Design the sequence.
């Protein structure tokens, strides 16, 4: 059980750097994460990374 269970987070700039780290951490803590990035491919990679980590 994570501290963000039943929460939804929108993370902008989630394709790299701090945004990616935040998106991964939020997902790990149980939030449903909406990923946004100006670079579509980086955004898709972030989503795949979240999924591959089981979140």
Sequence:
């Amino acid at each position: 059980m994570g501290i963000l269970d039943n929460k939804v987070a929108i993370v902008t700039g989630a394709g790299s750097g701090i945004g990616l780290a935040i998106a991964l951490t939020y997902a790990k803590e149980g939030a449903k994460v909406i990923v946004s990035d100006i670079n579509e491919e980086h955004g898709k990679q972030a989503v795949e990374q979240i999924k591959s980590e089981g979140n």
Remarks:
- The helical segments are 17-28, 40-52.
- The chain has one domain: 8-52.
- The mean pLDDT is 95.
